[in-house]
Structures are given as structure tokens and as C-alpha cells.
Amino acid sequence: MDWTEGLALLDLPENWTGGRMLIIIGTLIVLGSVIGGYMGGGGHLGVLWQPFEFIIIFGAALGSMVIGSPKTVLVGIGKAMGPMMKGPRHHKSSYLELLSMLYSVFRLAKTKGDLALESHVERPDESPLFQKFPGFAGDHHALVFLCDYLRLLTLGTNNANEVETIIGEDIEAHHHEHHAVSTAVNNMADGMPALGIVAAVLGVIHTMGSITEPPEVLGHLIGAALVGTFSGVLLSYGFFAPFARAIESAYNSETEYLNCIKAALLAHMQGYAPQVSIEFARKILPPHVRPTFQEVEETVTNLTHD
């Protein structure tokens, strides 16, 4: 049994296992390896506690991020902490629900015409069609995204090529906004090693001002100064750079979700049957979240019989 199977035995929620648990495990591995190796070699843990060094590194890194980031990105960083800890929100089960919902929408449009969707897209929060799929209905951005383009269908839009261009630009703008957030965190990580050197240099300056002190005092001051370099490198490569990648991964999951909706919508606009439209959408999904054809077929068959 590997460690992923062991996690599965804990019966944790799917997003908890993919997000919080991996961050906790990774953090423990980093801290355990670094601190454990240091202490195993005879190092004294107390020497590593240099709060003023941390203030220099964190404060300068935070200030540089504020200088180089617009307000929207700074707000986005605060909002990104949740997705980072939870991990990608969309998994196989949520895609199976999405494909089922799209099938229901397209079946209604095929049997009664696109105008039958009007009442649902104008008041999606009250729509019995969407409320049958609570996971999708609870994703405000995805719900609004779908309804905006279904509304175009009810208004008579039938050129799939034009709509494809618009949807592509819409998704790209959404992706760019999220990418700016992860880039800002990654830039802060890139600067931390240099800021650690700044803290170390300031420590050396302080040490030189105490050059008349006995060797044991100077040794402590020099050790404290070197903690700045150590901390900057560790915080950068051990934590903040991985945090940036975790944020990027979580937001890429949202982009893939929207692309799935896009593929299904375009197939529907080109006149394909609902089963074929959702199959187009299913095939573009990454393998680790893609439901099988049989799973989708069984789910939509149950919907047909409801």
C-alpha cells in the first residue's frame, strides 16, 4: 500500500486530501528535514530563533510586493489563501455532475428550443434545473459564466466560431487575473534569498560594532547574522515558491472547468445531440479527473428516467 492509498483509508473529503493534507505533509517534511538534520548534527535550536531577522525578511518582502502589485492583485492574494489550502476544487465527481447538468440543459434546449432556457438563465438561483446540481449551482462564477452564453443562445446567436472567440477571450482574462496573483507570490519568493542576505549583512554590521566583545559573544552574533541568509533561502524555496505553485494549480483547475463548459456549448451550437456535446467536453478533461464514458452514460440515463 502506498501513502495515497493510506490517505484514502482515512475517508477524508476529496479536496481535503488533495489540498490541505498535502500542504501539511509537505510542511512537516521540510521542517523535519531541515531542523532535524541541524539538531542531529549537534546544532542548537535556540540560535535559529532570530525574530528581528524574520522581521527584516518578511517586512521587506511584503513591502516590495505592495510596491509592485496593483490593489486587485493584493486583494487576490488574500482570497487565494483559501484555494491554496483546499487545493483544486474540481475533481472527478464535480466533473461528472457538470456533464450531467450540461446534458440536462442541452436536452431541454433540443426538445423545447433554446428559448425554453430563458427563465433558467435569467434567474439561475431560482432555477429548478440548476438546483438539481448543488455543486455547480454553488459555484457562482461558473454559473454566471454558463448563463451568460446560454443567454446569447436565447437571443438568437448561432455562430459557433464567433462565440468560441468570445469565450476564449473571457477565459483568458479570467486566467490572467489569477496568474497575476500566483506570479506576485512567486516574485516575493524569488526576492527572499536576497533579502536574507540583507538581514545577514545588517547582522554582520551589528557584530562589527561589538568587535571588542569576547569570542563567545561574537560567535553568537555571527551565528545570528547567518540565520538571515538561511531563513531567506528556506522561506523562498521551502515555502513561498511552493505556495505560488499551489495557488496556480488551484486556479488552473478552474480554467479547466470553464474550458469543459466551453467545449460542450460549442458542440451544442453546432447541432450535436446532448450525448455527443457532453462527450466532446469529457474528452478534453485531464485524465485524472475525467469520468469514464460508462460513468457518464449511467448518470445521464438515470437523469432521463427521473
Keywords for this entry:
306 residues, mainly alpha, 2 domains, 0% strand, disordered N terminus
Computed Rg: 26 Å
Q: How many separate structural domains?
A: 2
Kindly state the number of beta strands. 0
Q: What is the distance, rounded to the nearest whole angstrom, between the alpha carbons of the first and last residues?
A: 40 Å
What is the approximate shape? elongated
Helix-strand topology string: HHHHHHHHHHHHHH
Write the layout of secondary structure elements.
Blueprint: H1 3-9, H2 14-18, H3 20-40, H4 51-68, H5 71-86, H6 92-112, H7 118-122, H8 128-131, H9 134-137, H10 140-154, H11 160-208, H12 215-269, H13 274-283, H14 293-305
Commentary on this structure:
With 306 residues, this protein is mainly alpha-helical. The protein folds into two domains: 1-43; 50-305, no CATH class. It contains 14 helices and no strands. Helix 11 (160-208) runs antiparallel to helix 12 (215-269). 31% of the residues are buried. Keywords: Cell inner membrane, Cell membrane, Chemotaxis, Flagellar rotation, Hydrogen ion transport, Ion transport, Membrane, Transmembrane, Transmembrane helix, Transport. This is Chemotaxis protein MotA. Belongs to the MotA family.
